[in-house]
Design goal:
72% helix, 122 residues
């Protein structure tokens, strides 16, 4: 069973490593969202990272949108209130606040993890 990830620790590690840990966090977020939503069409976390790098961040906007949809699907699939934040993620990325996206996504994924570990959902 997955464990909830500490958002504050992830932010601190991202700052200390000058953003390198944020890339690892992106991979983990993608893989966790894919697993919880059951979306096999979304690229793996590693491929999402590579595509974001080679497109100089342009793929990141699609990633934000798709992550919003996947997390919403995962919430609905796991009997939690579903919030589609895909447009908000794009806007936050446009103004340079992608780290806020990571925090919001991680918070939603932590809620799913918590619900699964408590046995309240399948």
């Amino acid at each position: 069973m997955k464990e909830e990830k500490n958002i504050v620790l992830n932010i601190i590690l991202s700052i200390i490593t000058c953003g390198i840990y944020a890339l690892i966090w992106l991979v983990q977020l993608t893989d966790d969202a894919r697993e919880y939503s059951g979306d096999t069409e979304m690229q793996s976390g590693a491929l999402a990272l590579v595509l974001t790098i080679i497109t100089c961040g342009l793929y990141g906007f699609y990633w934000d949108y798709k992550m919003g949809k996947m997390i919403c699907d995962a919430q609905a699939k796991n009997n939690l209130p579903a919030n589609d934040n895909s447009i908000m993620y794009i806007i936050l990325n446009l103004v340079g606040l992608s780290i806020v996206n990571y925090c919001l996504m991680q918070s939603d994924l932590n809620q799913i993890t918590k619900a699964k570990s408590s046995g309240s959902i399948n």
